[in-house]
Each structure stands twice: as structure tokens, then as C-alpha cells.
Design goal:
Blueprint: E1 2-7, E2 12-15, E3 18-19, H1 24-34, E4 38-42, H2 43-47, E5 59-63, E6 75-77, H3 80-87, E7 95-99, H4 101-107, E8 113-119, E9 127-128, E10 138-143, E11 147-149, E12 152-161
Parallel strand pairs: 1-7, 1-8, 4-5, 4-7, 5-6
Antiparallel strand pairs: 2-3, 2-9, 8-12, 10-12, 11-12
Length: about 160
């Protein structure tokens, strides 16, 4: 299973239920990685999408504790166990965890790779991703050259779990 996330210098990912910044090349990278794949996300993340609708051309699996929560064109599961059972239907390498904070934290132990867009800026934030640079289980296996969007420097970093499952 994979994670895809954009973080700032402090591993922040959001503020007030919004992304910290929208970088067109990061959005393009996200689309290229996830089109035709399975995306796993929480209810609050889904609500931030255009019209609150699931992402097109992907299998959307929403994790929500609300048993009455239903989403057209998506599968809704209500527990981590139910999610892990649902994911058995798919190849692990085709599954991308896309947020938010609680979903990332719950599923990180099950992931073997993380595509991280690192943004060289510090934003006001209230949601964070675990710092993989400080986690001895993870190592950087690929890194892009630095790119810029206006005055924001960023780069794509691939982390892989040292001892894959």
C-alpha cells in the first residue's frame, strides 16, 4: 500500500480542513499516480473535494465511523478491520492513502511506500503527517530536483519502508 501526501517543512498537511497550498505540478503528480487506482480517504477529506464528490477514474474507499454515511460512486467502510478486508480485493501496489491526518496515521503502519511532496515553506497548520525523516523504519529511495511554483520551492521524495511487509 502507498501513501501520497504534500507536507511543509514541519510535516504539516492542512489548516482548517484545507490544503496548505495548491501547486499545479503537485496536483498533476497526484493525478498521474492515482488515476485508475484505489484511493483511501476519510469523510472530511472527501468533503474538501469539488462538490464533495469522489475522485473520477479511481476506486474511492471512504473510512467513516458514521454507519449511516453513504456516498454515491464510492465504497464506505466503518472500521479499520472492515477497510483492510475491503482492500484485499485489490493489489496492494494499486492502493493509495490520500488523507486526512487520522487516516494517514491509522494506515501508515500498513504502507510500504510514501510519495511525499516536500514544500520548503512553513505554514500555519492544524494537521500533520508523521515525520518520516525521523522514523528509522523509512528511507529515501528517490528525490526529484528542486522545482518552484512562483516563490515556493518543492520537490518530490519517495520513501520506502526498510523492511517491507
Amino acid at each position: 500500500m502507498n501513501i501520497i501526501v504534500a507536507v511543509d517543512e514541519n510535516w504539516a498537511i492542512g489548516n482548517k480542513d484545507r490544503l496548505l497550498v495548491s501547486i499545479p505540478n503537485d496536483q498533476k503528480h497526484f493525478r498521474e499516480e492515482t488515476i485508475g487506482k484505489v484511493v483511501v480517504l476519510g469523510r472530511k477529506t472527501l468533503q474538501t473535494f469539488p462538490q464533495g464528490l469522489p475522485l473520477k477514474n479511481r476506486t474511492n474507499i471512504i473510512l467513516s465511523e458514521d454507519k449511516k454515511y453513504k456516498v454515491k460512486d464510492a465504497t464506505v467502510v466503518h472500521s479499520l478491520d472492515e477497510l483492510l478486508e475491503e482492500l484485499k480485493k485489490y493489489a496492494s501496489e494499486d492502493v493509495y492513502v490520500i488523507g486526512g491526518e487520522s487516516i494517514y496515521r491509522q494506515l501508515l503502519p500498513y504502507c510500504d511506500s510514501a510519495d511525499v511532496t516536500k514544500i520548503e515553506h512553513s505554514y500555519a497548520a492544524d494537521a500533520f503527517f508523521p515525520d518520516l525523516d525521523k522514523d528509522p523504519e523509512w528511507q529515501i529511495t528517490a528525490e526529484s530536483d528542486e522545482m518552484t511554483y512562483f516563490d515556493i520551492a518543492y520537490y518530490f521524495v519517495r520513501y520506502e519502508r526498510k523492511n517491507k511487509r
